[in-house]
Amino acid sequence: MRLFLEPMEPLLFRRTGRSFDAGESGFADTFFPPTPETLQGAIRAAIATHWDRTKTLAEVFQQVELVRLIGDRSSYGRFLITGLALGRLSNDGTIERLFPTPAHLLTGKGQDNQQQLIRLQPDPARAKGVFTDLPSGMQLLYPDRKVQSKLEPLGGWLTERGLIKALRTKEELTKEERVSNHKIFEYESRLGIGMNNQTKTTREGLLYQVRMVRMKPGYGFVIDIRVGQSSKVGTTTAYTELLEDDDQTQKLLRLPDQGWITLGGERRAARFEVSTAPGLSEQGPIEQAPKGNLMYLATPAALTGGWQPGQWTTPAQPVAAAINRYQLIGGWSLRPGDSGGENKSIRRCVPAGSVYFFDTSVTVTQPMTEYGWQIGYGIAYAGER
After folding, report:
1. Which helix (H) or strand (E) holds 43?
2. CA–CA separation, 288 vs 282, rounded Å?
3. Is the N end or the C end of the chain the one with fewer CB atoms within 10 Å?
4. H/E segment holding residue 359
5. Where is average pLDDT lowest: 50-54, 242-246, 358-362?
6. DSSP 8-state class, residue 353
7. Could you tell me if residue 265 is inside a domain?
8. What are the residues whose beta carbons fall under 8 Å from the beta carbon of 349, sequence distance 6 or more?
C-alpha cells in the first residue's frame, strides 16, 4: 500500500546531533528530508487514531491486535516500510517519486568546454602504481571521460525514470528528470523567546531562532507500507510472508482513503491519501530489477562497520564506493504523560545516495542496514556499472 503525505504547513525535523537547550543554544536547525523514524511514527499514530474512533487513544493502545500490528515503544510489530521517497503530484494526478541523486554522478566541463554529466567508475588499469590508504581490495574511482574543470556533485533529486537511467543505462539525463531543492522546498526562519508560564512574561537570555522547511504545493513524501512477519537470515533480519494485496493491507490497518496527519516537531498538519503504485511503462519501477553489480542506497543506513556492515550478506564484497559525508541521526524519546524524556542514541549513518560497486552481480532483496530495517532504513536498489 502506498501513502502520499502532503504537508500543509512549515515543518521542523530535529534529528541532528546538534543540541538545542534553553539558554545554551540560540539556533535550531532542521533536518530534511525527515528520517524514517519520523515518518513511521506519524503513520503509526494515524493508524492508531483511525483504529476505533469510539475510544480514546489510551484505550486503543490497550488492544492487543493493534499492538501486534504496529508495535509499541519497544517493537515495530508487523508494520513494515518497504519504500521511502519524496514525491510530487503530476498533471494527470499520479504520484511521481523523487530520489536522492547517486553520489557517483558529478558535473564538469568536457572537451568541448560544455557542462556534462560525469560518472565515476572503478578503473584498476588507471590505478597502477598508485598507493592509497583505502581498505584492502578497494579501488579508486575515476571519471568516465576527460574533463577540463573541477568536478562538482550533481546534487538535487532524480525522478524514478531518471534514477533508472543513472543506475542501469548510460543515457543522459533530461532537465525534466532532474529536480533541484528550490523546486521542492524553501527554508523559513522563525524567531521565538522563552516565556515564564506563571507570570506570562518573557525570560531573559532565551531568544532563539528556528529554521523550518516549507514544501512547495504538490510535493510531499511517498511511503510504501507492507504487513508481514520477520525471520533471521545470518545476522540480518529479512522480510517474509508479506501481505502484497493493497486493499487487504488498507483494510487491516483501518486507514481511510484520505485524511489528516501530524508531522514533525510542533505537530504540523499534513494531508494523506492512499495511492496506487503504477509501474513505469518502459522499464518498470526501480524495484523490478533486483540484480546488478552496483548497489544504491535510497535511504540512510546505520552500519556497525562505518561505511559497511559488520558482515556482508552478499556473496561478494564491493570493490569501490562513492559515499558522501556521514549523517548524524538521533532523536528524542518522549516520556508518556508529560513533555519529558531523553535523547536517543546518535548514529553515524551512511547517507542516502551512496553507491557501492561490485565486480560480480549481486542480488538486492533486503535493506542494507543493521538498524531500523523495518521502518525504511537502508532501502537499496540494484544497478549496472
Report:
1. helix 36-51
2. 12
3. C
4. strand 355-363
5. 242-246
6. T
7. yes
8. 300, 301, 302, 303, 326, 327, 328, 329, 377
**What letter represents residue 90's amino acid?**
S
Cβ atoms 209, 26 nearer than 8 A: yes
CB 239 within 8 A of CB 82: yes
Q: Report CA-CA distances (Å) from 269 to 69, 263, 266, 336.
A: 25, 6, 9, 21
Q: How far is CA 96 from CA 37, 186, 280, 314, 322, in A?
A: 22, 20, 10, 31, 26
Same domain flag for 309 and 369: yes
Residue with the three cell numbers 475510544: 55
Q: Which residues contact 25 (CB under 8 A, 6 or more apart)?
A: 18, 19, 208
Return d(Cα 230, Cα 223) in angstroms, integer: 20
Tell me the pLDDT tens digit for each residue of 31-53. Answer: 889 999 999 999 999 999 999 88
Per the structure, the complete domain to which residue 124 belongs is given by 102-151
Q: Phi and psi (nearest 5°) for 236? A: -115, 140
Question: For the residues 264-283, what does the mean pLDDT come to?
Answer: 73
Asked if 91 and 109 sit in the same domain, the reply is no
- What string of DSSP letters covers 12-24? ----SS----TTT
Whether residue 33 has a cis bond before it, omega within 30° of 0: yes
Count of structural domains within the chain: 2
Cα Rg, the chain, nearest whole Å? 22
pLDDT band for 379, please (50, 70, 90 cuts). very high
The residue with greater pLDDT, 299 or 197, is 299
All cell numbers assigned to 161: 525514470
Residues 315 and 336 in one domain: yes
Q: Output the pLDDT for position 54.
A: 86
Q: pLDDT of 49-69, one tens digit each? A: 999 888 887 888 888 889 888
Length of the chain, in residues: 385
- If phi > 0 it is left, if psi is from -120 to 50 it is alpha, else beta; for residue 178 that is beta
Dihedral class, residue 344 (left if φ above 0, else alpha if ψ from -120 to 50, else beta): beta
**pTM value surpassing 0.85:** yes
CA-CA distance, 30 to 25, in Å (whole number)? Answer: 14
